[in-house]
Amino acid sequence: MKRISVLGSTGSIGTSTLDVVKRQPGRFKVVALAAARSLEALAEQIIEHKPLMAAVLDAQKAKELEGMLPQGAPTEVLYGRSGYEACAVQSGADLVLSAMVGAAGLLPTYAALGAGVDVALANKETLVAGGELVMAQAQKCGAALIPVDSEHSALFQSLMGNDPGSIKNLWLTASGGPFRTKSADELSRVTAKEALIHPNWAMGPKITIDSATLMNKGLEVIEAHWLFSQPYDKVKVVLHPQSLVHSMVEYVDGSFIAQLGPPDMRLPIAFALNYPARQPLDLPGLDPWALGKLSFAEPDLVRFPALRLAYEAGEAGGAAPCILNAANEVAVGAFLAGHLTYMQIAQCVEAVLERQPGGGLETLQAVLDADDWARKEARTWVDNKAGLVKV
Predict the structure, then answer these.
(1) Is 60 exceeded by the pLDDT of residue 219?
(2) How far, in Å, CA of 30 to CA of 51, rounded?
(3) Which of 95, 12, 20, 6 is nearest to 266 (CA)?
C-alpha cells in the first residue's frame, strides 16, 4: 500500500486525488493532509482518512481545526511552513501530491525532494519560480518528479519508451478559455464572473483566470522546459478547444505521439499516483466513435499577451519567471477583488517585469526574495490603479 501526503487537499486537485483514493481501495493510505483556510472541508477529510498529521496556515487556524475533530482523533495538527514541510517529509509518505496554490507549494515540494521522497507535481509555480534549484534537488537526492498537470502528464506519457534526443517539438494544447474568440475590444469589458466560467474544466478560481488569460499555458511552457529539458523554441502552444488531446510530442522523423482522454483531472492524478503501473479507474472514458471534429489553431499573442510575457520571462531566465509568477498571482487576486480589469492583469505583470533588478537565483532564499519583491511591486502597481476602474 502506497502512503501518500496530499498538500492542498481541499482544492480541486486535492479533492480529485482523494476521490481517486476512494475509487482504488486498498492501494493508498493517506498519511498527511494540508490546506490553508478551508477548515470544515479539511476536518471532514481528516475524519474520513485519519491521517497521521495535518497542517493549516497559522496557529489560530490550527486551534480552530482541532476543535472540529473528534476527541482523541489520531491526527496531529500542525501549521505554517514547518507544518507543511512536516507533512511532506516526516509523515512517512512514499509520495507527496503537491497541489498547493501558487508559490506556497515551493518550500514543501523542495523539502520532500531533499528527503528523497517522490513528488507528484500539480503545482506548476514550483518549477516556474525555482525550476533550476528544484530539478537539481530532485537529481541530487534521487527523487522522482511525476507531472500531474494534464498537459505535462500527456507529454510524459507520450515520451515513455522514446529517446529524448529524438524530440523535435513539445506541443502543449490549450482550450483557449472562455474568451478564445473575443475581440480585443470585447476583452476590455469582460468581468471576473465571466472569466470564472471555463468551457471544459472545473478548476479553482486562480487557475481558471490564468486559463482565461493564457497565463496558465505560459506557466506550463516554463514548467515543460524544466521537466523535459527542452529549449523554449521547442515548446509550442496550440489551441485545441475540445480539450481531448492533452498534449503531443513531435519527433524528428515527423511522427506525432499524443495522449487523449476526457477533460477529467482524475485521470492524470491516477496515473501519477500509480506510476509506473496503470490501474483500473471506474470513470467515463473517451468514445472514439463520438469524438466528432478536433480542431487546432495558433494562439494570438496580441489579444493574449500573458503567453508572450511567459515566453519572454522564460528566455530571460534568472529571476524573471519567478517575478512573472508572483506578479501574476497578485494581479489575478486584484482582478477577482474588482480592483483591476481583465486586460490590466497582463499590464501589471509586464510593468513589474520591466522593473526587475535582474540577476540569478542561486539559493532558495533568493527565490523567496525575488517572489517577495515582485509581490510588493505588483501591489504598488495595483494600488495606483485601484479606484480608477470599475470591474
Answers:
(1) yes
(2) 6
(3) 20
Predicted confidence (pLDDT) per residue in 85-133, tens digit: 999 999 999 999 999 976 678 999 999 999 999 999 998 889 999 999 9
User: What is the rounded distance in angstroms from the CA atom of residue 103 to the CA atom of residue 96?
Assistant: 16
56 touches 42 (CB < 8 A)? yes
* pTM exceeds 0.85: yes
Helices 364-385, 125-141: crossing angle, 10 deg rounding: 180
Mean local confidence (pLDDT), 139-153: 96
- Please report the DSSP string for 345-385 in residue order: HHHHHHHHHHT-------SHHHHHHHHHHHHHHHHHHHHHH
- Model confidence at 391, in pLDDT bands (50, 70, 90)? very low
Which contiguous run of DSSP H or E holds residue 59? helix 59-68
**In one letter, which amino acid is 205?**
P
The answer to whether the beta carbons of residues 138 and 115 sit under 8 Å apart is no
Which residue is listed with cell 470585447? 186
Distance of CA 285 to the CA centre of its chain: 24
- Length of the chain, please? 391
